[in-house]
Write the structure tokens for this entry.
Amino acid sequence: MELNIPEIIAILLVAAVFTFGGIRIGLRFVLRRLAGLIFVMLGVSFITFILGYITPGSAVDLLCSKCTAAKYAALHHFYGLDLPWYQQYWNFLTNLLHFNLGLSFEIRGLKVTDILASGIPISAEIGVLAVILQVLIGVPVGIYAAVRAGKVSDTVLMTVSLMIFALPTFVIIPFYQLLMVALSQHNLPFLPVSGWGDPIDFVAPVGILAMVGMGFYARLTRTTMLEVLGQDYVRTARAKGLTERVVVYRHAFRNSLVPLVTAIGPAMAFIVGGAFFTETLFNIPGIGFMAVSAIQTKDMPVVQGTVIIVAAAVAIMNLIVDVVYGILDPRIKVA
Amino acid sequence: MDTTDKPGVNIHNEIEVRPEELEFVPQAPGTVDAEELEGSKSVSPLQAAIRRFWRDKRAVFFLAVVLVILVGSYLFPLIYVHLGPTIQGGITGTQAVPPTQYHDPYQIDLLRSDIPGTLFPLGSQSLVHPLGTDAIGRDIFARLMAGVNISIEVALMVEVFDIGLGILLGALAGWFGGWFGMVLDRFTDIVFEFPGLLLILLIGAAVGPIFDNIFKGQSNIFGRMLMLALAIGLLSWPLMMRYVRGTTLEMKERQFIEAAHTVGTSTYNILTKHIVPNLMSIVVVASTLNILATIIGEAGISLLGAGLKPPAASLGLMIADATSKIYTSATELIWPCVVLVILVISFSFVGDGVNDAFNPRKKD
């Protein structure tokens, strides 16, 4: 089987995670997680396959608007669409293992992997930047609120950030776009409303995603900090006469890092999944946008490919987070 | 009976009672101290929770907002179709069109498309199209109300599915345990690993056309609503099942269940009469949050084109249609967004209030 660079990297990454995790945490951990991963991937691939299977219309229908019955049947046979479902599933699985996600229905000869490969870097860029900003803004806000717990500034900060968090992005983005349109019509400086190409196009999507997500980290940091600040060793540190700043940053914050790291893992799922609404409303050609347009044109292989890739990425991300968690806090037995 | 083999303990030294320490107050059997009775009026957990909710002014206020919007969206259209003057319009442009037609959310009138809101200046024409019309001439206010209806109906259908399946499987898994619970747990893991939105999009694309044809008689709106409700419900019930299973496991160890067992209550009766009523707190909290998520989810999925299709009036669809017209008719975009924002914020605060009412926590 032919492999190329991305597949090699993926395999090495997964192998590294398992080896590292195995050495640090134990063989049982590795085996259990491996079994879990396989189970999940089987389930995901099966569900995805079944949904594709029962979709009315197929590749042949699109290719074959005016075919004779014989040609139709021949094409069916060629694509293997007349095999029983379990055999089709087996082919689907083996193709998956060879990193072959099939061909797009819509554009002749375009491999699904190519489509995804063009979209993933863009989504990843936005996602990583957004998460970094969310953490950089959210964590200090959380610390600030925890230190002033119960006072007005705490309530205001938390309420505002959680309200923005609760609002869906597809509501915030139209408001932003309306604002920009209004600004541009009054000859005031404004940011782009859609499109992708210049660095300035980054500002709005990443900014909005950062604003929306930071409430999560703010609340999490605040809760863990409050828990930690109530502990005895913090009281001791204060009694020792250490300044408040040292107490908060050196002692309290370090110990609240662990839940924070665990929470980042699942939150990063959207890096890989692409932020659908942001990409669709801003016309950014990321993987989310590709999936959505594939849905609208009924291009099932692309949709299936996206689902599988995203599920796999989420599973691997969770795995990495568990390993990191086990390392950060040796008391935890991640079995 | 403690038989410690510690050196130095002599069984003869166990009890050392000094007579003046004894304060023996004889009590007739069966009597109860007066102090014990005070303040012990028994109140069910549900009533206690309702009382706590009532004290949270913010939650009560937003509950009122939610109720006004919900009830209004069903009742107000009945009046609305009679409000307003008869106007010139119709296909030929000269027919007399009564409000029953132009205030109908599904009535298309291409001659009156993209009209800005007529509410101001206040006058005889202000009730014609108070918030304007959309791209094919449908009154926006009427569509907003129809959109809220659809959101609520889909959310309720999802909750029925979610609560029904969640309680049933959760209680069974928690009570009987064993491999049944483990299998469901694994299944829950799979569902969590899935990118939920993508899965619903996939389901929408795959089986959407099937649902479109089910209710061929009337419009296909209900078919799509059902599909959306089933798809969203499919993703939500594992979480509910987990909550229910956890609570059931916790309750299984409690003494009142043990007592019921001892008395000989059948398993069915224990489950239905003792466990399920006590699940109410977690079910109510989880459902409120789930309704919020469903409203957002339905709007989002319809926005992406995989949920409800035209001519349905979904808030997400309205946003999607209006996005292209942002330079010309900005108001078409604002109103569905505003309604969504109000619904989301109100449900959030109500959900917080419900959570605090059922799980009171100490002040942080």
Notes: Strands of chain B lie at 87-89, 95-97. Residues 63 and 350 of chain B are 6 Å apart (CA to CA). Chain B touches chain A at residues 186-187, 189-190, 193-195, 197-199, 201-207, 209-210, 292, 296, 299-300, 303-306, 316, 319, 322-323, 326-327, 330, 333-334, 337, 340-341, 344-345, 348, 363-364 (CB under 8 Å).
